Amino acid sequence: MRQPQGYVEGDGKLLGFTATTSDVSVFTKFDTNATTFVLVYVDDMIITGSSTSAMTVVVNQLNCIQVSKTKGGGLLLSQEKYDNDLLGKAGMTGYKPCKTPLPSSLKISQFGGDMFDEPALYRLVVGSLQYLTITRPELAYAVGKLSQFMQDSLESHWKLVKRIFRYASETIKYGLHLHKNDLLNITAYCDSDWGGDPDDRKSIGGMCVFLGRNLVSWSFKKQSVVARSSTEAEYRAMADLVAELIWIKNLLSELKVTASTPTIYCNNLSAMLLAANPILHSKSKHFETDLHFVRDYVSNKVVQVSHVLGSVQLEDILTKAIASGMFKSARARLNIEQNLLYSATAEGAAGTVHEPAIPSNEGVLQNSSKTKDLSSRVYDGASVKQHNEIR
Known about the structure:
Helix content is 32%, strand content 18%. It is α+β, with helices and mostly antiparallel strands. Helix 6 crosses helix 8. The longest helix is centred in the middle third of the chain and has 25 residues.
């Protein structure tokens, strides 16, 4: 999570804590008997660590008023009150709910309709929805797409905004579930919707990163240049993901957390082979910088890339509008769950537990002899047609 520009001052030390180099809003304190972390964003703060007494000392030092305790085996990050207030602000209470934020296979254009007569309302409401995506990553694509029309919004865009609110009303008690677990393996997914923007044919890239079972980073991003092939679009998304993984690895290292070598799952076999093989083809020279950036980290075993079948890919929810069945499945795999975690039961936490979307061996094709046999058709220019952070 980045601080506003100019906010961080001084030597980065506070109450015996030291700011990390990877993120100056994260402070660490390593004592003999306890490890404590503090995440600060302007006037908001999260305190966590290995010792309750050590955290209590920090709370007392900072004069905090309230300490929240959770039950069960994890945390559920939700914005139910904010969602309720937003529905009221937009006048969307009492509308019929729907199962997805956007109709499936919809391509949203800036042309072909009447201008919306309340552009200030559009900007206010869509801007408010952006904040909701902090705990609702399944909304990132829909909100991100409609955020592109802040200056020239159409009536058709406003109808889609209202549909997002109908979905938010249906899922108002949902949030991002962070499970308690000891797994420190890093798995990541990247995907792209090649030429997904109908107006300029730029591609949409998406990525998400899991630490153990928990989703810790995700993004939806419209690529800045037009990709000449699905392989190029996928590879650019992979380059963005590698940069994010390097940042996460550096941050974990400063927190003295040892994690596994990150594994990237990609459903475009051509992009995977480009990452694993030191061959430069004429049809890949125009994105040579991304090519060498990813290859360097793959060859040095900082990250590894595996192929995954499109049927078990996770990123469609961040790159396109998908049908309700696929959407519900992907949402569950992102650990977006209903707020049943803290219901009062004898056993403690309730709710469905979803494992991260790590594909089985049947769906994974790693850098084996089979992939090498396929390399010739990649470098002949044949593209395998398979199928947006917070910090």
